[in-house]
Write a structure and sequence with these properties.
Elements (H helix, E strand, L loop, with lengths): L1 H30 L6 H5 L11 E5 L27 E3 L5 E3 L2 E6 L5 E6 L13 H14 L8 E8 L2 E6 L6 H7 L22 E7 L3 E6 L12 E5 L3 H10 L4 E4 L11 E6 L4 E5 L7 E2 L5 E2 L7 H10 L2 H7 L5 E3 L21 H10 L12 E2 L2 E2 L1 E7 L3 H15 L4 E7 L1 H7 L4 E6 L5 H7 L17 H11 L4 H12 L14 E7 L1 E6 L2 E2 L22 E2 H4 L1
Parallel strand pairs: 1-10, 1-11, 19-20, 19-21
Antiparallel strand pairs: 2-3, 4-5, 5-7, 6-7, 8-9, 9-10, 11-23, 12-23, 13-21, 13-22, 14-15, 16-22, 17-18, 24-25
């Protein structure tokens, strides 16, 4: 805990700089027509909350690739500017969006989607089945995180019907219908990511890279209209977002747990449950291996099962939640805790030092030279744990986990690295990553042999033919329900799996709550369990947001 207190003191110093940055951005925003601030409104300088239809938000980072759904925009939240065929409600149940209905053939190979016929893009042009066909074909060619390799063909026999033909049944295909925003064929070009046109509830009117994006309501939108005509998204890091909330320049600010105990005048803290997890990924091969692109891979310490299981069982996840997350989160035992495809049997009792020592001893790891670090065949139980530099929550989790693991005789050296450095080093060093999706395909990508080393997927080069077999059965089931037991067996089938009881290629630590400081009186509706935070998931239900005092 001493370390956490020290870091908190350091944060206070950083916040002052954050305020200066926010003031600078705020001035820029005002010059460009940014909405009045929460504090100014509360002070009666202009209007009242009940009539204010503009919001300023600092709820996440700027999308690196812009706003093109065919290359990944919208995968972790609402695409905002585009519509999807289906979407998930607050309980993650499927509901129609552009689609009025859909059906799947008995063999699972043909998906038929019927579209509503009253949809226009924000430029006034109608949205037809040809646009859906174009979107899926473009995404398939993009080579991005949108995996459409199993789609054999897509056809638009008339303006309202789309036929997807798959090479083999795919239970996760439904997730593509809920996340891939539809782009207009007539307005799509090389600069689409910076100038998106869509049929979603909002349209982008200004993007000042590195600072802000200003959006306005799409007058052509067919769905329930939001109460807010204009939204200004400020791209602020955690410290600056908190400073903005203190300064009254934002209506919603996403903040880290370290700031959660501080009161901010005129704002209320809202905590949203998530599957936005943090965990330690272990290199699974002995040192000397190579990744497919020739980078050094493998680690002689983390490739030993006893090390991975000992790390898993000695970590006190509840203490991480209380000590690092200030209680805003819950322990993580998989990449999909509390989602239908997770396996409850894979949850285990942690914070068990004696069991960790027994696992190490049984695996041949003993402290022969009395320096407090166990060794085996002349190799000390010591390895690096990387985190993205600048992410203080990940830094705190990594340091706290290293302290816990040291009790068992394993030394972890914690190092902050840039994302580019991490990409190159991740094949041979443990990394504190974060994931979390409403799509079980993410589980497949993290653990499948097929996706070893694709981007950040499975950079530990984990491979288990039995696990692969269970996941292939899940993937090729004809429905989400039919796939569930196969996903669960891939995690742990009683003999093997990717859980702690099996190969333990990860030590999952925590699921963090998403924390937002929200201006008093602003109701952000019933939130879904959030996925990973990159896609502004808090905005998924914007049509439900309102001022409480205007709805009484």
């Amino acid at each position: 805990m001493g370390r956490f207190s020290w870091r908190w003191g350091k944060r206070k110093g950083r916040t002052g700089l954050g305020i200066l940055l926010v003031c600078s951005i705020g001035l820029s925003g005002c010059a460009q027509g940014t909405a009045p601030t929460a504090s100014s409104l509360e002070n009666g300088q202009s209007g009242t909350n009940s009539t204010k239809d503009e919001l300023v938000l600092a709820v996440g980072t700027e999308p690196e690739g812009g706003f093109d759904p065919t290359t990944g925009w919208g995968q972790y939240g609402s695409p905002l500017f585009q519509s999807t065929l289906l979407k998930r409600d607050a309980k993650l149940q499927l509901v129609n969006d552009l689609a009025t209905e859909y059906s799947v053939s008995e063999d699972g190979l043909t998906w038929t989607v019927t579209l509503r016929n009253d949809v226009k893009f924000s430029d006034g042009e109608p949205l037809t089945a040809e646009d859906v066909k174009f979107t899926f074909e473009t995404a398939a060619k993009s080579g991005s995180v949108i995996d459409l390799t199993n789609m054999a063909d897509v056809q638009a026999p008339d303006d309202s019907t789309v036929l997807f033909t798959l090479k083999s049944p795919q239970s996760t295909f439904i997730s593509l219908l809920t996340t891939l925003g539809i782009v207009p064929e007539h307005a799509y070009g090389a600069d689409y990511a910076e100038h998106p046109v869509g049929s979603g509830p909002y349209k982008l009117v200004q993007w000042d890279k590195g600072q802000q994006a200003i959006v306005e309501a799409n007058e052509e939108y067919y769905g329930n209209k939001s109460a807010f005509h204009k939204l200004t998204f400020l791209y602020l890091d955690e410290d600056a977002a908190y400073a903005a909330a203190q300064a009254g320049t934002v209506d919603i600010a996403a903040i880290p747990a370290a700031f959660s105990k501080q009161q901010v005048n005129g704002m209320t803290l809202e905590a949203v449950k998530t599957v936005d997890n943090r965990g330690i990924m272990f290199p699974m091969q002995p040192a000397g291996a190579k990744s497919e692109d020739g980078l050094p891979a493998g680690n002689d310490v983390t490739s030993d099962l006893a090390i991975r299981q000992a790390v898993n069982v000695v970590i006190d996840r509840k203490a991480l939640v209380e000590g690092v997350l200030e209680g805003y989160g819950r322990p993580a035992y998989s990449a999909s805790d509390d989602l239908p495809w997770s396996n409850a049997e894979a949850v285990f009792t942690d914070a068990n030092l004696e069991e960790a020592k027994q696992i190490l001893a049984a695996g041949g790891w003993v402290d022969a030279d009395g320096d407090g670090i166990v060794e085996k065949n002349g190799v000390k139980a010591e390895f690096n744990l990387l985190y993205f530099a600048g992410d203080l929550t990940r830094q705190s989790l990594a340091l706290a986990a290293a302290d816990m693991v040291a009790q068992a005789g394993i030394k972890i050296n914690v190092e902050g690295k840039s994302r580019e450095e991490t990409k190159k080093m991740a094949y041979s060093n443990a990394v504190l990553f974060g994931w979390g999706s409403h799509d079980p395909l993410e589980t497949y990508n993290l653990y499948s042999s097929t996706h070893k080393g694709e981007g950040y997927y499975n950079v530990g080069l984990y491979s288990n033919p039995v696990v692969d077999s269970w996941m292939e059965k899940a993937l090729h089931a004809t429905s989400e329900e039919e796939a569930l037991p196969f996903w669960q067996k891939a995690e742990w089938d009683g003999t093997t799996g990717f859980s702690y009881q099996g190969d333990a290629p990860w030590a999952w630590l925590v699921n963090i709550d998403h924390l937002y400081l929200v201006t008093n009186g602003l109701n952000i509706g019933k939130q879904q369990i959030h996925p990973h935070g990159h896609g502004w998931p808090v905005t998924t239900n914007l049509e439900e947001w309102s001022w409480d005092n205007s709805t009484k």
